[in-house]
Design brief:
Chain lengths: 316, 316
């Protein structure tokens, strides 16, 4: 039997056929074009699923279940509660998709789904509990408890990016101040760098972007830090201090087997995670006791499809 | 059958016989005298258990299990990892106690145990998940997931008081800065009040303590706020802002059925929890979706014994 995983993004719908070793055996994708009626978007999920199945030489009879990772929240009945980027609110995703493929359908948050993928097929494989942090434009979270995604009682759990880390701090797009994602996202490292380069227009970061601060991204800063550029190092230290505090907060709260760092910033690799591991003991309460391992995500883009496919498995 | 609950504190050992309706039917207590060898402290737990059983007209044969709530951390094998106030580290509590009463023995953190008591016999009864916050000298946490206490993989979870809420903020006794308990404990409200009265020596708070700021406690401040004293109101607003942020962080992370406020500060009653409920929407990400209820703890001192007794029940 196989599982279908759907990674629904603001730009693309990516669908994969996933085997029981949690490998993608065939894929198909199309544009989301999210301004059209949701029924059409969902029909295209089914079209892509059929294409991918055909590539794999399989039919609906071979499918155990379908999972969909969405950039938003869903309830346990497979309804999308909301999905801001798509403009979706109260969408009966399961019911609509089952018109085309009559199989069990599960819907989950994309960061949760990525955390689930890591816990079955990635770095946290074998861990009973883990917390996944996606360090991208914002910060998302995926909580796995006893091998199952934890979505909260109202489906709004694991919004780790919107926990307050600096009360009264930086303005967040959510309306709050001091949200964790204002200090630990790619956006945060860029903000910190833009601030730092003002007084250091000749630093390595500015050389990398030919003097155009608007071209600074997380990689520019981390590469400069790797090269020991003082401004790069300063921003990197500031950023990783906050990231270590975020890891501390996860550990003090849940004490999982593992904290997994994923998303664009995590592509900086061991250089990043080493700094975080070195700094977490500065914050942790019980410094002399064992606590969660902190590791880099092992999967990249494929986590979306694999994790979505796993929603059905985790519900078994 | 009955359960024995032991509330081990720095000053007293309180032991109760708890029936299957989670009512204390008999009690006995003695001084902890924690500087003596741990074997003697544990022997006195057994002595108190026997006294309480005798009062109830019962014997060891009627006991299903024994639970002990400690102001520290324990592992799953009933060993105390550490218990700072008692100066205990790596103490084989289960093994030692079973020398006197050969029944299953469970050991848990005191805040976790209080949360468990609420979830079986108190305000969160019937909730599958809840997070309990004790607002005392410090801030402790008790996490209940699927009716069971969540202690984390290494036994160090639910240290909610030491999550960072104000990065770089007030110095905490743990060595960190900006811990949640520096802003939401009784100690915090006293600190805020002492600061505020400096410029307002004639305020109601100072009248209540006859001009001696060292006598200010949480009740003084909250009573002044209830009376509409401007300084009392100002401090109360500041404190409840932070408490609402703390509730927000719990909700964004775990989205439990209920957040329960317990401990000394919570004795301020509905006046406190109303303010928190009013302020949580200022911070919550999904303001228009349902989220955790916020309620006052229903049990007081008896939560320690009842919750400890429940450790055995929750492990069934």
């Amino acid at each position: 039997m196989v599982y279908i995983g759907v990674d629904l993004g603001g730009t693309n719908i990516a669908v994969g056929v996933v085997n029981e070793n949690w490998e993608i055996v065939a894929e198909a994708s199309t544009k989301t074009l999210h301004t059209r009626p949701y029924q059409e978007v969902i029909r295209d999920m089914a079209v892509c699923a059929d294409k991918a199945l055909q590539k794999a030489g399989l039919t609906h009879n071979d499918v155990k279940s379908i999972g969909i990772g969405i950039p938003g929240c869903a309830d346990e009945d497979g309804n999308v509660i909301f999905c801001t980027n798509l403009g979706w609110k109260d969408i009966p995703l399961r019911t609509e998709l089952q018109k085309y493929i009559n199989k069990p359908v599960y819907v989950g948050n994309d960061a949760t789904v990525a955390g689930l993928a890591e816990s079955y097929a990635g770095v946290s494989k074998g861990c009973s509990s883990s917390v996944f942090l996606t360090l991208g434009t914002g910060v998302g979270g995926g909580i796995i408890i006893d091998g199952k995604p934890w979505n909260g009682v109202h489906g709004v759990a694991s919004e780790l990016g919107h926990m307050i880390l600096v009360a009264g701090g930086e303005q967040c797009s959510c309306g709050n101040r001091g949200c964790l994602e204002r200090y630990t996202s790619a956006t945060a490292i860029i903000r910190m760098a833009k601030e730092a380069v003002k007084e250091n227009p000749d630093c390595a970061i500015m050389k990398k972007v030919n003097g155009d601060a608007d071209r600074i991204n997380a990689k520019t800063v981390i590469d400069a830090a790797k090269e020991n550029d003082p401004v790069g190092v300063k921003v990197f230290e500031q950023y990783t201090d906050y990231l270590a505090m975020a890891c501390n907060n996860v550990i003090q709260f849940l004490d999982p087997d593992m904290v997994v760092l994923g998303g664009g910033v995590s592509y900086a690799g061991e250089f990043l995670v080493d700094a975080v591991r070195r700094k977490v003991p500065n914050y942790i309460l019980n410094k002399n006791l064992p606590y969660s391992e902190i590791k880099l995500a092992a999967l990249r883009n494929e986590a979306g499809i694999i994790g979505a496919a796993l929603l059905g498995r985790a519900a078994e």
